[in-house]
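Quick sanity check, Peptidase M16C associated domain-containing protein:
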Amino acid sequence: MEKKLSLTLVLILVLSLCFSPHTAASASQTALIPLPETGEVISGFKTVEAGDMALINSKSVLFEHEKTGAKLLYIQNKDMDRSFDISFKTPALDNAGAIHVLEHMSISCSNKYPLKDLIFAILNQTYSTYANAYTRQNFTTYPVSSLSEEQLLKLTDVYLDSVYHPSVSNSKNLFSREAWRYEMQDANAPLTLTGTVYNEMKGDLGNISSAASQNVLQALFPGSIQSNIAAGVPDNIKELTYEQVLNFRNTYYHPSNSLMVLYGNVDYRRFLKHINDEFLSKYDKKEIAVETGKITPLKEKAERTVKFPVAASSNTKNSSQIDYAFAFTDISEEDTVGLGILADILNQETSPVMEALKKSDIGGSYSVSFDAAFTQPILTFSAANADESKKAEFKMLIDNSMSNIISTGFDKTAVDAVISNTLLTNSNLAENRNTGVNLSMKIASMWANHGSLDYYNHLIKNIKTIKDKAEDNYFEKLLKKYIENNNHAALAITVPEAGLAEKLANAEKKHLSDLKAAMNKQELDKITADTKAYNEWNNQLPDPKIVESLQAVKIADLPEEVKTYKTNDSFTSDGVRLLSAEANVGETETSSLLFDTSAVPMKKLHYLQLYADLFGKLSTKNYTQKQLNTQKLRYLNNAEFHIANVTQNNARQYTPYFSISWMGIASEYDKQLSLVKEILLNTNFDNSKALLNLVRAQVSNLKSQYTNDPLSILLLRNLAQIDESSTYQNYISGLDYYNFLLKLEKDLVSNPKAAAAELKNINALILNKTNLVTTYVGNKNAIKNYEDSIKIITDALPKKKITSQDYGKLPKPALREGIAVDSTVQYNAISASYKKMGFAFTGKLLPIQTLIDQNYITPKLRFGYGAYVSIVSFNSNGLLTASYRDPNIRETFEVYKGLPAYIKNMDLTQETLDRFILNAFSDYSAPRGELAGAESALLNYLSGKKAEDKLKILHEIKSTTVQDVKDTFAMFQSFIKNGSYSTVGSKQKLLENKDLFDEILSIK
Ligand SMILES: [Zn+2]
């Protein structure tokens, strides 16, 4: 239910260059500075409390600034990816999105750094690993990180200047750009309305799951600000005024209403001094009342139905969402943790409530979720792609199921498995990238919504306490208290209405044309003059001196170093490959098995994908579906079963594998392997009812994915042209697979045996140790154990000849393709392989990718045309440009077509280019966790990439010259000429631009 509103989207998905280069984190730098005693005052900050954060093996100190009351939490550990975050409590007083517009405006420009797009300059032209800002329920947060302490100190200065010292001169134009503005190029042109936040929210609220979340809030918190959309609703955003935003800033952006989080290995004293001297010392303490919208719990359960607009051509049968949600008032910290785990227990595919739901035919797929990011947290049961007439049945089924669980109790092994999983996942948070940033934002949410600053200090302790209480029916008691006896609940039904999308779009068009018709000449002239003035302002180039002043690191200082891991590569006597990497970790390990699937005939590939999707979800000889699910959760944490291609020679050659991968505890490795063996050897494919349910859920999941995340299908289809491996991936898991499942859903009713036979055939092809690759990452002893234990699997498998099939004739999407989905915004992409462009990949392209995005595409698309995000990505296979939540199609492709001319005419100095080099270098060097780093190094090794290749890329990034940029002219020309063009968007918009496409298809 959380609104994720990132100012920019980082798409690692398309960046497949995932080595694990490390920057200079030499031993001498890792010494930590001693922490102060409680009571000690440093630069006006009083030490309030010292603590431990077992979660990430760190210490923490809470400071309070004596003069203003500002809070600063310092989390100390050896992480070199240091971060700073400042948050303010910001209530959503209405749906006009003032908070969100203010967030965008603040981070665009400050008094000391008067650029128009400050955040993009930081993101693209400094030695930073993360820079963003978010508007969330009840707070606004500004996180930034860097591998350099000097750079982080500089960025802390920039961020604080942005929030405390707004730009005066640029403000009105920034408001027009970020909130909304009328546009009219000349007197004959139509009047249009655009703006970054306006378009962003059109896209964000344009899918049924967002609309359903909004519906739940309005049902649970009627009349309260908790039901408002903090980020704004387009119709209300266009009523917002600059003065409202200014008032909002004056009220809430004050140190007394702030929390800062500093993270990593830094000299925190320098930061405290800088923050005090330059900013906080100029303020005095102020009482700021922040409304939270807390309401008296409802006495009776509520019900609310809303319509969701979709296109006339949409199939609305079984497409509603039904949510049954419960709100909780004043709950303890321990119960907050407990309710989160409870939702996970209920969300298990084989939990009693899920089993009952699957038998019901109410919806296509179901989920249970818990969200503590509200003053009154919420637990929600959801049915997606549901039949709205079964709402009462849905509610009754859940009520009955809860009563049953309370009287009979949960299966305690299942509960134990979920808790173990929660502990393992939470103990490995530092494995993810941007640990500091992610943790800071979570802390800010708990602070803003619950006034708590030590929730994450206590998290591991709380999970362990709950684990001890579980035997004593802790979760059953929780259910009784918070669900069964809780009338603060609501049933919210969100129903798609076919044709309503066009009706609203036409009404908006009519509104604008009526508005224009009613204007006199003077008013019309003013709008064309304003449009002209805005565009002139938007086209002004930034002062390079200001961009220069953001830097704290020089290119010469960048260390060309790659962290290496000790790798072992050997074969067993029967030819199974054992590949391991040694990581400096305790008991945690990651492991995978890669089965060569090249023998699967082309016509049976979708059954292979289905096999992967069903893996571990059906009963086996020794386990029921439910028992197996518990075992999987207990031993195969975060397990993934999928078809993965390992590519050689830039993806023109690839081997398709069925990959089984998981994380676990090293001492349990034998148990993990035995469980995988049981699934591989003993799965029962003959339960046609279970099969049908799983296929149905998969159809529903894919359908939701296409409407909630259109970018995923756009990239899959567009990139299908780029190389053979991507063609295969698109065919096996994209729309062709979805259509296969739709047909299978029908066939399973008439002829259930046929599908089971196909799956058994696939299983027989998989069960083969020929070409089997096994991988393992763990400590030295664990690796030894792995090499001994792997025979649990290998001894059980036959060794059969593999006859590789030819996948050269797999169908590809049209070169110029439009795909219609229910959407009010568009997603456009062009891509081409280096082969097609007559070019080869080099690290020099990485700074160029950011340069053209920041200096050419983003100003045109985002600030000119109001498209929310632009993506430019050179990966090792080719080039991709894409737009995200874009009001247009034709205009966007025209901007891309201007790339060669832009390169040809660009006036670029090495000084400017150097800033993009810094950023590309930082991006490429950003560290990963110890396990994740070793794992990625192993996968690169498997693809034949060596440490020298990574060093070469780092070196190439550093040595990029202006001439190198100029030399890409021919490549961009070829990109435009030979690329594949795709759009996912509204049918109406696609039809208006149908001359651009060879084919337009609709997802059913
Ligand atoms: Zn935004």
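Posting the structure with no commentary besides this: The chain has a mean pLDDT of 92.
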